[in-house]
TrEMBL record, chain A:
Cofactor(s) it depends on: Fe(2+); Zn(2+); Mn(2+)
Protein name from the UniProt record: Lariat debranching enzyme C-terminal domain-containing protein
InterPro entries linked to this entry: Calcineurin-like_PHP (IPR004843), DBR1_C (IPR007708), Dbr1_N (IPR041816), Metallo-depent_PP-like (IPR029052)
Primary localization class, coarse: nucleus
UniProtKB/TrEMBL annotation, chain B:
UniProt feature, compositional bias: Basic and acidic residues: 1-12
Region: Disordered, residue numbers: 1-30, 67-275
One GO BP annotation of this record: mRNA splicing, via spliceosome
Low complexity compositional bias, start-end: 237-252
Biased composition (Gly residues): 166-190
Designated name of the protein: Hydroxyproline-rich glycoprotein family protein
Polar residues compositional bias, start-end: 68-96, 134-157, 221-231
InterPro entries for the chain: SICKLE, TTDN1/SICKLE
Length: 420, 348
């Protein structure tokens, strides 16, 4: 049996169009798609309040189409798994830090996570890498400041550290930004013809994510998919260690004429397939949750007292009792009502997600997500740091509404040019 | 005024010359004078026998673009194609991979074990055969078909009823949503009592499990009852592409669903514009494996590209030995900061 998995680049809340394209593809190719993977910028915006946690310029803040799937007006025609990027309803994704259903049929992999679909093991790392936040904890809390809203999706070492503990093989891995150095393993000239302004960053070794590159070398998945740079780029990586290879593919965002979708086939057991919690990942989660860093300080791994094998056995026993099905979707925030604008202050934007609570209860772990440590004053603590740095937060804030560049890809890329 | 007269005379002369050469009409017809900004006289358009189709570009900018896109696309396939058969296609370029089956690290020593197979010849070259991990069943039994969907009846947070969830339900895959679903109970909402009305995937056929390989589904793109949706209507008009102010699809900034169709043609009304055959072709077929070095000692670029870089003189670097400690720190900081700013620059 073969499983057909569709992969999409940046979603940007455009679920309607992506699903419609896939339905069309099914008909034209006379095939059935079993699963859709999305590589970030999903924009799981449930209502107007969520837009306040979405890092896009105000004029581009629009509901797009995820809310229909959250509210139940529509149901995804394909099981969908996604990671976060740098344009997200970060308040909602934080609710589901450990992963969970963002909507029926639509599963968020978590800030870092591994899940199984049938016999396919899928891992992912949400966000993008920025060195200045990498060694900090997840200090951001609602309501997000202007700085928080841009840092909350920056990859943290803690999440990468957990992923690096994985020993069992991964079939597919998702990251929003590309592993740094990946451009050396594909048709670089073609890439530079399409995106000539990448040259300097490639030359300097700064195009992409260092932790993603580290994970690629460690996990050596069969496939690695990314997005973020709004272009299609394939690479073929051979790992020195064992000769195993990884097929890398970055994809574009959903626009007419753009390479935003790819269908691959993977050998699998007979379907239909279901999503299952991953035993090893749950064990890693259990092991490291006690040092979950919720201030600007990184985790203190010396305080990890649980052994890996001990956690594995614990999770194995639990899963045998309960089964490996993820916890059920539950709406938390109110649904968007186009006819009824929500007045400011009516609801807050952060909820204890019952899925997260259930998972932590299952793992016998403490719920930490909305704890506000006394020492946590991120804006105040970081002010000197941030004001002292000249890194360009706004550099990530590329207007995503770049429909006009469809004809101009050979010219200076407007997405980049607009950054200044 | 004099210049205008001279220009007219010059253009008349040019036109006469072109007519006498015998290829005037051909040149115009094939766009030899296609750039009106440079070639059309500003004061006397009427006297210039520009063919009308070229001028359509202004009133319908996407006329040229869409036509071009269509010509580049694969032949349009009618959405009436039945999905009843999920037999393997015979696209020889579709990528295929064998998963790692049981997760034994030892298997890695067997080398690259995912190979590309034509869709019509599945499973070959797989050293592992068909993995038998887990007990496959329906995609998460917690999922329900839309007919059992009961949206929440409250608008505030808290413990809502779980939509789309039914213990032991048979999810299958939903190819579009059926119409006439139960009312949602959104007080005052346009969805009240309408269920999934207006779903652009409005399904005329069954939506049973495709694994059953039976049943015919009508066009999934039929539109009905969109109650003012931006996707209302056919969306076929070429001038609607960009969603400019004259477009009926212009809803940027509007409250209803945002700009979900990219300012004009949605994938629901014209999925063929979004679809490309390359989506099912092997993107790695031309590539050779490259040994992975995540952090090469020197940033890697091909010689041809590196050579180009050398054309740009490096900024003069002040000797560190001549700098004070403060200057050293400032220089280090600026270097790090500019590096990060550059890194910020590429993505979205």
């Amino acid at each position: 049996m073969q499983m057909r998995i569709a992969v999409e680049g940046c979603m940007h809340g455009d679920l309607d169009n992506v699903y419609a394209t896939l339905l069309h593809l099914q008909e034209v190719q006379n095939i059935k798609i079993d699963l859709l993977l999305c590589c970030g910028d999903f924009q799981a915006v449930r209502n107007e309040k969520d837009l306040e946690s979405l890092n896009v310029p105000p004029k581009f803040r629009s509901m797009n189409s995820f809310w229909k799937y959250y509210s139940g007006e529509k149901v995804a025609p394909f099981p969908t798994i996604f990671i976060g990027g740098n344009h997200e309803a970060s308040n909602y994704l934080w609710e589901l830090y450990y992963g969970g259903w963002a909507a029926p049929q639509i599963y968020f992999l978590g800030f870092a996570g591994v899940i199984k679909f049938g016999n396919i093991r899928i891992g992912g790392l949400s966000g993008i890498y920025k060195s200045h936040h990498y060694n900090m904890g997840h200090y951001e809390k609602l309501p997000y400041s202007e700085q928080d809203i841009r840092s909350i999706y920056h990859v943290r070492e803690y999440d990468v550290h957990k992923l690096l503990q994985i020993e069992e093989p991964i079939d597919i891995f998702l990251s929003h930004d590309w592993p740094v150095g990946i451009t050396a393993c594909g048709d670089l000239k073609a890439l530079l013809r399409q995106k000539p302004f990448f040259e300097q960053e490639i030359q300097e070794g700064t195009l992409g994510s260092k932790p993603a590159a580290e994970l690629l070398g460690k996990l050596r998945p069969s496939y690695w998919f990314s997005a973020h740079l709004h272009c299609k780029f394939a690479a073929l990586v051979q790992h020195e260690k064992d000769g195993h290879s990884t097929k890398f593919l970055a994809l574009d965002k959903c626009l007419p004429g753009r390479n935003f979708l790819q269908v691959i086939e993977i050998e699998s057991g007979p379907g239909p397939h279901e999503l299952q919690l991953d035993e090893e990942w749950l064990a890693i989660t259990r092991k490291y949750n006690a040092v979950f860093p919720l201030t600007i300080k990184n985790a203190n791994y010396n305080s990890v007292h649980l052994g890996t094998e001990q956690c594995l056995q614990f999770v194995r026993n639990k899963l045998q009792t309960r089964g490996s099905k993820p916890f059920e979707f539950v709406q938390t925030a109110p649904c968007y009502k186009p006819s009824q604008p929500v007045a400011d202050g009516v609801f807050h934007g952060f909820y204890k997600n019952p899925q997260t609570e259930a998972l932590l209860q299952f793992l016998e772990l403490e719920y930490l997500l909305n704890k506000m440590p006394e020492s946590r004053k991120p804006a105040a603590n970081l002010a000197p740091l941030i004001s002292g740095c000249s890194f360009d937060y706004l550099g990530e804030d590329i207007p995503i509404d770049d429909i006009d560049d469809t004809e101009d890809s050979k010219e200076v890329d407007p997405e980049y040019a607009q950054e200044g | 005024m004099d210049e205008s007269e001279k220009r007219k005379e010059r253009l008349n002369a040019m036109r006469m010359e072109a007519s006498q050469s015998g290829d005037y009409n051909e040149a115009v017809g094939y766009g030899g004078l296609t750039n009106p900004l440079t070639d059309v006289p500003s004061g006397n358009v009427e006297s210039y026998a520009m063919p009308r189709p070229r001028f359509d570009y202004y009133t319908d900018p996407m006329a040229a673009f869409s036509a071009n896109k269509r010509s580049n696309n694969q032949p349009h396939v009618s959405p009436q194609v039945s999905q009843q058969c999920y037999t393997r296609a015979t696209n020889p370029q579709s990528p295929i991979c064998t998963p790692r089956g049981n997760y034994s690290v030892d298997q890695r020593s067997q080398g690259v074990h995912h190979t590309f197979n034509p869709l019509g010849n599945p499973g070959q070259n797989s050293p592992f055969g068909i993995p038998q991990r887990g007990s496959p069943s329906a995609w998460n039994n917690s999922f329900d078909t839309p007919k059992n969907y009961l949206p929440p009846n409250s608008s505030m947070g808290g413990n809502f009823a779980s939509p789309g969830i039914q213990r032991g339900g048979r999810p299958g895959f939903h190819y579009g949503q059926g119409s006439g679903q139960p009312g949602s109970g959104y007080g005052g909402s346009p969805y009240q009592g309408s269920g999934y009305r207006g779903n652009p995937y409005q399904d005329s056929g069954h939506r049973g499990s495709p694994s059953q390989g039976s049943g015919h589904r009508g066009s999934p793109y039929q539109h009905s009852g969109n109650r003012g949706s931006p996707y209302q209507g056919s969306g076929q008009g070429r001038s609607q592409w960009r969603g400019n102010s004259s477009s009926p699809f212009s809803f940027r900034g509007g409250r209803r669903g945002g700009r979900g169709s990219h300012g004009g043609t949605s994938g629901e009304s014209r999925p063929d514009l979004y679809y490309s055959k390359s989506m099912v072709e092997d993107p790695w077929k031309e590539l050779k494996p490259v040994i992975w070095k995540a952090f090469p000692e020197k940033p890697w670029l091909p010689h041809s590209i590196s050579a180009k870089k050398a054309k740009f003189p490096d900024a003069p670097v002040k000797s560190i030995s001549q700098q004070s400690l403060a200057e050293c720190l400032a220089a280090s900081f600026n270097e790090a900061a500019s590096s990060e700013a550059a890194t910020d620059g590429s993505g979205t």
